[in-house]
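Forwarding the complex inputs:
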Amino acid sequence: MKFKTFAAFVAPSLFMMLLFIAFPLVSVFVQSFYVTQPLYETVEVETCTPGFLTQTCVTETKSQPLRDEAGKIIERTIFVGLQSYRNVLEPDRLWAAIQAGSWNAVQSIDFWKALRFTLTFTLITLPLVLGMGLAIALVINNAARSIRGPVIFISLLPFIITPVIGALSINWLFRGDGILTATLEWWLERDIAMFAQAWTIEILMMLYRVWHVAPFAAIVFYAGLQTVNQDSLESALIDGASRWQRLRYVVIPHLGPLIVFVSMIHLMDSYRVFEEVVGFSSQGHVISLQWLTYDFLTPDQAGNRSISRASASAMLTMVGIAILLVPLLRRTWRDHKGGRA
Amino acid sequence: MTARALRQPLSLRLFSGGFLAFWCLVAAFPIFWITVMSFKAPVDAFDANALNVIFGPETLARGKGWSLIDIALGLGVVLATARIAVRRLPGLVAANFPGALTPVGWILAALVLGVAFIVAFFGLVPLLSGWLNPVAGPLGRDIIGATTEHYQTVWIDRGFSNNFKNSLIVTAGVVTVSLTVGTLAGYGLARSGSTLAFWILIAALIFRALPHSVLVAGYLPVFISSSEWLAPILGDNAPTLYGKPMAVIAVLVAINQPFTIWMLRSFFQNIPSELDEAARVDGCSHFQAFRRVIMPVMWPGVITTGLFSFLLAYNDFLVTSLLLDASNQTMVPAIAGMFNRETTTTDQVVAVAAAVSITAPLFLLVMVFQRQIVSGLTAGAVKG
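Prediction (whole assembly, two chains):
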């Protein structure tokens, strides 16, 4: 294909990606070094209240935003260097907390709290999703052909559901004396409040994520199971391999590339964990990195959005993505070189 | 391989079947349960006793209930819809909307079916049972407490229909634009082995990993102040992009683009390139070959990719909640607002009804397109 034709085919898509992905990325990077705020002036105001015989007058200095002729607040954008990053990372408080040796103090700083949860969440859900997905794929593969269709239909439901709604539906099962909390209480014979402390909420969030993603892993693995080489299975059988050994040494190596694929997708997606925080309304106890940026972007009570801090926390989130992507990119690059050679 | 050597011991088969049943229960239970809750009075919906939630004594005491006849009629409508969706719809669409019109046909068919279901379930069934119940004796007595009032509250009083309309606009826009743009790019990338194509795909892979909040942090200030910086180009009526569905469509299309082109590329690679080479030998240009030879055979891949674009746009919370104002809100942010603000149990059940309303179209979608969704999930994986 000639370059011109290729360019004509790809141009619209490339244009959209440059304009709406690459450009915002650069603009976030730049924004994170600047702060836009209203210009303030200091004025002396004399307020007088009527009193007996004479008025009582108080003079005080007050700072108020400067306005132009139209009455609009004049804003000014100044270069602040790394100040926004400092506001997000709060290195002084972090250092003080580390010196005091207090983990709780570290966890009281929003960014570190979010980072801690995001990493725990990602690393704990990954093996669960892989294991659960593999187990479901194996049992579906083991089931009678006639029930596979309906079973796959039911399995797809958690995957297809809107993430916020899925989290909400699990939330409703446990909220207050929800049906599952009641069952747990009856079973353990003690009072349980699922939403009163951080760790129970975290467990619920992870359970939700495994419920949501395991079907995806299962379907991918199930497709892989259809292409397992029957000859190697047979020779393993003749060599006297047990069922477990055949699974361990023939089937799982065959699924290897798929396991890597699912892990990569899952790492990328669970690092962006966000909907769970909304669905479980857990912001009082547990927050994630992406939720932190979202929170900075939401207008506060005065209607201001802290764009600079949001940009700084967004850039810091990106660092994690970059680390995640390096092995993936190296592998793709190797494949590409290998494919051409 | 001998069948006997592979026969599994009973214990293993029992365990396997048991685990499968357990998983199906886990997968379906939350969705089933919120559907049940949405038909109950608040006291019943949040009752600690499961039987009370299912049979709804409090709801029944308020005179709201379904008799056996109602249940039979309702089930009949649901099953008929499911049957039509799975058995008849694909054939009808394929016959009446050949080739390029297929997606339009699907949208129309889904809309017609959805409206027909709502009319039948919420209009026809109560009407019929109103006639039948008084004459049917014991069959006509209410046995399960259930009410559709929460759905009426959500859709009519809370203006959820407006949110639904916005969701529809955003989703339709995203699917159409991202397929048009993505198909061209996917074809170009599949047929070009150049290094540039490789780097575009790598860039797309990196873009796919970006957290959406990073991108929104980039748009927000630009969109809010857009009437100022667009003024030199567009004059006085330059729009503020913040809060406009069009802007959100553009953003979601871009976010979706990396995924779309990867997926479509892998579908196009499955179409043998001899096909368009033959057309080129016969004197077609690349575009003509694309239009006359590739377009007629690419629909399965395009429909699958379209489904995933639909899911992204329909399920999105982050972008729509930050970039749309209250009057243009789509369904998902709307319900999150509803849930966080309201505290009485009635409001909670209303939110549950809204959640079920959002899930229902997705349910229908899986029913009709199960095969395409599965093939889409595996397409990316099997070919790496």
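The mean pLDDT of chain A is 81.
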